[in-house]
Amino acid sequence: MIALGSRLELFTDDYLIERIKGDARLHLHQPVLMPPEHGRSRVCYTTILHEDGRYRRYQRTVRKSYQGEQYDGHPGELTEYLESNDGIRWRKPRLGLYQIDGSRHNNIVLAGTSTGSHNFTPFRDENPAASPARRYKALGGVHPGGGAYAWGSPDGLRWRKLQAGPVLTSRDFAFDSQNVSFWSTVEKQYVCYFRTWNTSHGRLRTISRTTSADFVHWSRPVAMDPNLPGEHLYTSGTHPYFRAPHIYLALPTRFVPERGSSTDILFMSSRAGDRHYARPFTEAFIRPGLDPHRWGNRANYAAWRTVPTSDCELSIYVNDRRYTLRTDGFVSLRGGARGGELLTRPLRLDGGDLRLNFSTSAAGSLRVEIRGIDSRALRGYRLRDCAPLVGDHIEHVLRWQGDKSAAALAGQSVRLRFVIEDGDLYSLRFT
Predict the structure, then answer these.
(1) What is the longest distance spanned by two Cα atoms in the chain?
(2) Please, where in the chain does CATH 2.115.10.20 lie?
(3) Angle at 13 between CA 10 and CA 19, to 5 degrees
(4) Which one of 28, 41, 371, 396 is least enclosed by Cβ atoms within 10 Å?
(5) What confidence tier does 172 reach under pLDDT thresholds 50, 70, 90?
(6) Average pLDDT over residues 299-316
(7) 3-class secondary structure for the chain?
(8) Which whole-number Å values give the CA distances from 185 to 125, 222, 252, 428, in the listed order?
(9) How far is CA 107 from each of CA 122, 167, 183, 287, rounded to the nearest angstrom?
């Protein structure tokens, strides 16, 4: 029995699904590449935060004057900071925190450290017990070099290490790609996903998970092992979805060394506390595309976190490019022209209207039936009591004939039956 409460649920896994039949299936939607707002830039391991009406961007760059050897953690690596009001047009504030090439008129928030700037990945700590002096936290590190180091900041600009040594270290773990961490509001602990090499298919780049109560002492890592045979996953990009924090989205970079070290972006998900990823789709989520530069060595990394950039749109950043999807639009239940249906597992309702994110063609439709646990349709909530839904809505409040609401079924255990023709259902919630 699934207690839904008022949670938003997506179709990124089979958590809700008892069965799908007819002309219907789960469908992975590819994001749309938007026109560039600026020229190409050399950045890597980007983080995007959306808070208090502004967007904050952190990413690795290189000191222009640096002419030395290129290696992970070299002295020329810097962490730069950008801001935006809309997530599209970015500005570089003059912070005055570091003198770079003879000037403090720059946007650098971290410099002169081999244990930070290579892959510095910050987040705003939602732990209610977090110290104001450490309201922002981050991990950064290289391998070899000791492991992952923890950082804290009161404002996301001025950073200090939480301790001199690394908080995660082992000869078996590689910390030279983007190590992502956050406070899970569902698990009530810090969670970190980072690269390891232990898979059921042998030594391949993969993803492990570890947890912590204080961001300093971490549990023994658990291998998530989502790889296909022979497949390298360079980063994980795992983060809580901003509309459904119990669902962790993952946008890993798939690395193909035998093809010039080319890369693309995959889509996976996990649920709070799970030790595995759901991966119903093995094809690319974002391809390199027409730009020949994106077919080069390690040329595609999704920024950590997806963010809303309008009421009906979310943005995904890949290096210096921006892609968009409709809100909740990662995966849908897609009905074909002949129509099909989905039946959910048993759900316990706590009350509230059923709200749907869906889209149909002009000739398509979506109808919903509510059944009891015995799979018999409830009177007043039968398929014939539901007028066909036609159109495109991010949050449609469903009513059955006679203005019946699902709220009247509070406390009951039910199944939902969705019958869909030439359309997509992206998400649902009761509230």
Answers:
(1) 76
(2) 32-326
(3) 100
(4) 41
(5) low
(6) 98
(7) CEECCCCCEECCCCCCEEEEEEEEEEEECCCEECCCCCCCCCCEEEEEEEECCEEEEEEEEECCCCCCCCCCCCCCEEEEEEEECCCCCEECCCCCCCCECCECCCCEEEECCCCCCCCCEEEECCCCCCCHHHCEEEEEEECCCCEEEEEEECCCCCCEECCCCCCECCCCCCCCCCCEEEEECCCCEEEEEEEEEEECCEEEEEEEEEEECCCCCECCCEECCCCCCCCEECCCCCEEECCEEEEEEECCEEEEHHHCCEEEECCEEEECCCCCCECCCCCCCECCCCCHHHHCCCCCCECECCEEEECCEEEEEECCEEEEEECCCCEEEEEEEEEEEEEECCEECCCCCEEEEEEEEEEEEEEEEEEECCCCECCCCCHHHCCCECCEEEEEECCECCCECHHHHCCCEEEEEEEEEEEEEEEEEEC
(8) 10, 20, 23, 21
(9) 16, 28, 27, 31
The amino acid sitting at 320 is D
d(CA 136, CA 152): 6
Strands 307-310 and 54-62: unpaired
Q: How many residues does the chain have?
A: 431
pLDDT at 142: 81
Domain with CATH 2.60.120.260 in the chain: 2-29+331-430
Average of per-residue pLDDT across 12-33: 99
What would the CATH number be for the domain defined by 2-29+331-430? 2.60.120.260
Tokens 């200090």 belong to: 160
Q: Which tokens sit at 330? A: 């990662």
Q: What is the pLDDT of residues 60-93, one digit of tens each?
A: 999 988 888 777 878 899 999 999 999 999 999 9
Tokens of 213: 């109560």
Q: Assign domain 32-326 one CATH number from 3.40.50.1820, 3.30.70.260, 3.30.70.2190, 2.115.10.20.
A: 2.115.10.20
Q: What is the pLDDT of residues 253-283, one digit of tens each?
A: 999 999 999 999 999 999 999 999 999 999 9
